[in-house]
Structure formats: structure tokens, C-alpha cells
Amino acid sequence: MPIGLIKRLFPAKEKAQVTPVAEEASRQPPAQPPQKKPPKKPTPAAKPAAVQWHVSQFTVAPQADKTRFHDLNIDERIMHGIYDLGFEYASPIQAESLPITLAGHDIIGKAQTGTGKTAAFLITVMQKLLTTTPSERYASEPRALIVAPTRELAMQIAQDAKGLSKYTGLSVMTVLGGMDYEKQRQQLNNEVIDIVVATPGRLLDFLMQKVVFLDQVEMLVIDEADRMLDMGFIPDLKRIIRATPEKNLRQTQLFSATYPFDVIALSESWTHKPRQVEIEPESVATDTVEQKFYIIQETEKDQVLAAILKSDGMGRAIIFANRRDTTRDLAARLNRMGLDAMLLSGEVAQQKRTATLERFKRLDKTILVATDVAGRGIHVDGVSHVFNYNLPDDPEDYVHRIGRTGRAGADGTAITFVDEYEAYGLLDLEKYLGKKIRTEQPPQI
Ligand code: AMP
């Protein structure tokens, strides 16, 4: 009898791992016989990539202050995915963390959304899964587990994972609360899944019902640990992590935007000899940038923006928004309003991005709608205006954004739209900038 089957029939280890502690006993579902799983064929990851593509097609000029993905010895199948996503240079968090994690070390990273942290941990997860291929695989046993606090974040991670793993043969699935219970159960039961991206509640539910087993997890990622704490997920998360191999037998990557005491303590208990990475705030001279903050309702933003964009004195303008879908929709709406707006975000193919940036540099009067990470790569002089369609979640991003204008000694204007929901974020920004922010009404249009 194969060892895997014996394990499933006599899952002593799992039983011990999920025994509820007293206060969590109400979660325990009725005892069920463990599922019996037929061995599956070797994982498709073992197969060579069948696509005609060579990394030489992915040309990125070396630059002294930047890291190229080419310099990191990443599997060609992953490089192909990176190429399709249009990434050229590693973002700062990627440049700092990948050499550490690709060498097999655990990491504790301080980074916000928008920095490219998702690709940073995903590339490492995939590289590891492609280099160590187990001989036998079973349904219900992921090799990598990524836990995120919200459905939206988990879905975004899974989408990025699917993009990056497109040519690897690795399979990705989401285990999310509030939706498709039966479908997720069936998929876990019947398919060999390499990477599970999950929110804690549903995952724990499946774990206790023995729908999923985590003892084959080689790679563990805990994303937004501080939000897990805020949302009360730590007890669930502890039990999930106890069901994975011991910390010296798995590789753990933990990311958090902030490090309150509890997160520091948990990070230390969940990681093995971790290296720490923190992205230093970029200090930019903002003296040459006039900063305006308009108090405005969400529904009025488009109209005010379009009117300013059509006014005199407008040269090259960059509009930042916090999410990819916001940038996409906004660019489309501006075009419908008769403005020629181009989109620059991670979801735009590389060739298109290069062409977009070239056009942006060529024209004296032009509009670019960008996400934070895509926008960081823009080093173009003569940007007269930067707009923040949303107040960035992270004050650091604000400084990055407005630093796209006022370059090379020229003057620039940064206009930030702040609606009623965003207004509280101004306090953080004030603290970060160390000065009082004066808000005003937008000009009459
Ligand atoms: P994240 O911080 O992981 O949410 O990523 C923010 C955005 O940056 C996503 O749209 C990614 O697709 C994009 N992105 C990640 N890495 C890079 C990179 N090296 N170059 C350009 N865009 C990137």
C-alpha cells in the first residue's frame, strides 16, 4: 500500500494537529471518515515547457541602479510569465527579497500593496516548486500555501499567480470563504493542486474536515499579517500553520505593512532564521512641487479631473489610482470624455507598455493613467502635473507619486483628490510629511 494511502487512512498526525483547544471546540465538525485519495500522475510541473520561447526574446538593458529578473537565475518558464506581464526591472522589494528567498531563506518583509511584493513571494514559491519535484502527488495536498486576510486580496494573488505560472504547468486554486463551497471541496478532493491561495476561515474548515492536508506544504506565505491580526484571524492562522511541516522543514515568507508588537512576536515564531527586508521610504525633494488637496465627492472626481486636464498650462500629466481596475476604468472613461489617456499598469503587455512610455515621452501634452508600481518606472522630465485620483493608502506612495513631477529643477503641480472616505488618511500623511495639510475646494467647473 502506498505510504500516502496509509497516511490518508490512518491520519494520526493530522488528527493530532487539528485537535481543537477548549475555546475553539465549537468549530469542530462531526467526525468524518478521512477521504481516500487515489495516487495521481506525477505533477505536470515535471513536464518540460512545450512553448517555443527563449529568454533571449526578453531583452532588458542592464542599468546600474536596477536589478533585472535575468540576473536572478529564475527558471525560464517563470521568466516567460514575467515577460508576458510586462515587468522589466525588479521593484525594490523584489530586488531586495528575491536573492534571499531564492537562496532558500525565510523572510520577514515590511512592504505595502503596490510595491510588487506579491510577485516577489510568488516567483520564489514557483521557483522552488519547479526545482524540487516529488515523485508522487495526491489530491488534497498542496505544496505551497498562501494565506491572505481578505477574499479580494486572495483573488488578486491567485490571478497574479496564474499569470506568472502560465508556462510552468503548476496549478493554482483559491480557497475562499463565502463562495463556491462545494466546488472548492470537489476541486481539492479530485485535483492535484500545487498552490493554494486561501483566506483563513474556509481553509481551517476544510482542514478540520480533512478535505485538505497541509503536511506536504514546502512553501508558506502569510500576507498582510497585520491585517490578519486586526481582523481576528490569528487563532485560525495558528492552527493552520500547526498543520504545516515544522518551520525548519518549510520555507516561510511573511509580509506585513506595519509591525506592531504582536506581529513581531508571531513572525518570529513562524519563521526559521528569517532575514528581514524593509523598503526605505524614497526621499524626494518635494520643494519644486506645488501640492494641492481637493476635497471632493467620489462622483465628482471625473468631471473635475477632465476639466483640469482640458485647461491651459497642462503638459504631460500622470494620474495615479490605487488599483489596477480603477486605472483601467478611469482611462476608458477619460477617453470617452474626449481625452487621449493611456494606461500603464501591470496588466498591460510589455510591448504595449514600452510603446506607451515612448509616446508619453514624445508628446508634449499627454495623459498617462498608472498604478503605483508601474508609475515608479517613469523617469520622464517635463511632467507638469501629477494627480492622485485616490489618496494612496501608504504615505510613502504619495511621495513616490508626486516625485514624478518637479524633476530636473522644473516646477510641477500635484493635485490629490480626497473624498469623505479618504479624508482620515490625511492624518497619516501629515505625520509622514511632518507638516500640516491644507485642503481646499476644487476650482469651479
Ligand atoms: P503588489 O504590490 O504585489 O500588489 O503589486 C502591485 C502592482 O505592480 C501589480 O499590478 C503588479 O502586477 C505590478 N508589478 C509587480 N512587480 C512589478 C515589476 N517588477 N514591474 C512592473 N510592475 C510590477
Short précis:
The chain is of the alpha/beta class and 445 residues long.
| Main beta-sheet strand count, sense and barrel state | 7 strands, parallel
Number of domains: 2
- Helix-strand category: alpha/beta
Number of helices: 17
Average pLDDT score: 85
The CATH class of the largest domain, by name, is: Alpha Beta
Determine the fraction of residues in helical runs and give it as a percent range.
25-40%
Strand content: 15-25%
Overall number of strands: 16
Helices and strands in order, then pairings?
Layout: H1 3-9, H2 12-18, E1 39-40, H3 76-85, H4 92-102, E2 107-110, H5 117-131, E3 137-138, E4 144-147, H6 151-164, E5 172-175, H7 181-190, E6 195-198, H8 200-208, E7 219-222, H9 225-230, H10 234-242, E8 251-256, H11 261-270, E9 275-278, E10 289-295, H12 301-310, E11 316-320, H13 324-336, E12 341-344, H14 350-362, E13 366-370, H15 372-376, E14 383-388, H16 395-402, E15 412-418, H17 425-433, E16 439-440
Adenosine monophosphate binds at residues 87, 90-91, 94, 113-119, 324, 345-346, 371, 373-374.
3D structure, described in words:
This protein is α/β, with parallel strands linked by helices and 445 residues long. It has 2 domains: 3-27 and 53-280, Rossmann fold (3-Layer(aba) Sandwich), CATH 3.40.50; 285-440, P-loop containing nucleotide triphosphate hydrolases (Rossmann fold). The protein is built from 17 helices and 16 strands. A 7-stranded parallel sheet has the order 5-6-4-7-8-2-9, sandwiched between helices. It is globular, with a radius of gyration of 24 Å. It starts with a helix and ends in a 5-residue tail after the last strand. Residues 1-34 and 41-48 have low confidence and may be disordered. Bound molecules: adenosine monophosphate. The site of adenosine monophosphate has 17 residues, from helix 5 and helix 15.
